[in-house]
Amino acid sequence: MTHTPIKKPASSELSSDPPSFYCYIVRCADDSFYTGWSTNPQRRAKRHNCGQGAKYTRARRPVILVYIEPQPDRSTAMKREAIIKNMTRQRKQKLIDQGLGIVEDA
Asked: What's the predicted TM-score (pTM) here?
């Protein structure tokens, strides 16, 4: 009896479920931007608005979710967050204006 090895599916063959991690940008009431990562950006924006988000956003409510960028995993989301946080305001605005991140209705 021969043993047939089980072939693991390539990552492209895995489930087409939506990504679990996202980078997001919210526009604060003082017109500043706050960048973060989350598994659910819409829920996270609501938490920011309830005062349960980052210390930065607590004094700048309400916030509006203006940009969402899907990421393949937590590590990549955290790295992308750092990259976006280091962008100039003008570059962040261009990213938002280009519509590269999709913001769905809450």
From this structure: 0.78
Q: Which of 75, 61, 63 is nearest to 25 (CA)?
A: 63
pLDDT digits (tens, 9 = 90+) for 55-94: 999 999 999 999 999 999 999 999 999 999 999 999 999 9
Q: How far is CA 36 from the centre of its chain?
A: 6
Q: What separation in angstroms does the CA of 5 have from each of 1, 8, 13, 68, 99?
A: 13, 9, 18, 40, 45
Pick from 63, 67, 76: nearest CA to 102: 67
Question: Computed from CA positions of residues 17, 20, 27, 43, in that sequence, does the dihedral angle turn out positive or negative?
Answer: positive
Per the structure block, which two tokens stand in for 38? 């989350």
> Could you tell me which residues are beta bridge partners of residue 68?
24
Please name the CATH architecture into which domain 19-97 falls.
Answer: 3-Layer(aba) Sandwich (3.40)
Q: What is the DSSP letter of 35?
A: E
